[in-house]
Amino acid sequence: MIEIKKAERDDCKDLLKLIDALADYEKLDPPDREARERLVEDGFGDSPKYESFLAYKDGRAIGYVIFYLTYSSFLAKPTLYLEDIFVLEEYRGEGAGKALFSRCVEESRKRVCGRVDFVVLKWNKNAQRFYEKEGAKVMDDWLLYRLEQI
């Protein structure tokens, strides 16, 4: 049985371990000490910049999602932007990813969002199949640009 719980400050240790696991999966460097401190403050401080849910199975944190709101001027509604969704490899296929994604969709409806946006790495065919199965469509007429270190 998968349980989904809104992450709180006391859950930061589990959340950070899962973020590290995502970094390993994507062959990226995990957040350094300063970034970890910002993650805690930015998610659970006086003015949160993101929200998170954790997936549990048998009392163990096995997955997470981080999201925040942006705004669509054309829809004149908020957009729920799904930053990360990740489930430990050994628990994939058990419904945790679907439960986390469904919780985000539910949150978007509660907040009267016009849409849910997210990006998927080109090489991550499993994620692409997952989202397409959930009804998402690839936006191939848009290009992702990034300006770093501003």
What does it look like?
- It is a single chain.
- This protein has 150 residues and is of the alpha+beta class.
- The longest helix is centred in the C-terminal third of the chain and has 15 residues, at 96-110.
- The chain has four helices and five strands.
- The termini are far apart.
- Helix content is 33%, strand content 26%.
- A hairpin with a 2-residue loop joins strand 2 and strand 3.
- The model has no long low-confidence stretch (mean pLDDT 95).
- The protein has a single domain (2-133), classed as Gcn5-related N-acetyltransferase (GNAT) (Aminopeptidase).
Strand order of the largest sheet: 1-2-3-4-5
User: Gyration radius, to the nearest Å?
Assistant: 15 Å
CATH architecture: 3-Layer(aba) Sandwich
Oligomer: single chain
Going by helix content, strand content and strand pairing, the class is alpha+beta
Low-pLDDT residue intervals, each spanning 5 or more residues? none
CA(first)-CA(last) distance: 43 Å
The largest pleated sheet is described as: 5 strands, mixed
Q: Averaging pLDDT over every residue, what do you get?
A: 95
Beta-strand residue percentage: 25-35%
The fourth-level CATH homologous superfamily is: Gcn5-related N-acetyltransferase (GNAT)
The count of β-strands is 5
Total of helices? 4
Q: How would you sum up the global shape?
A: globular
At the first level of CATH, the class is Alpha Beta
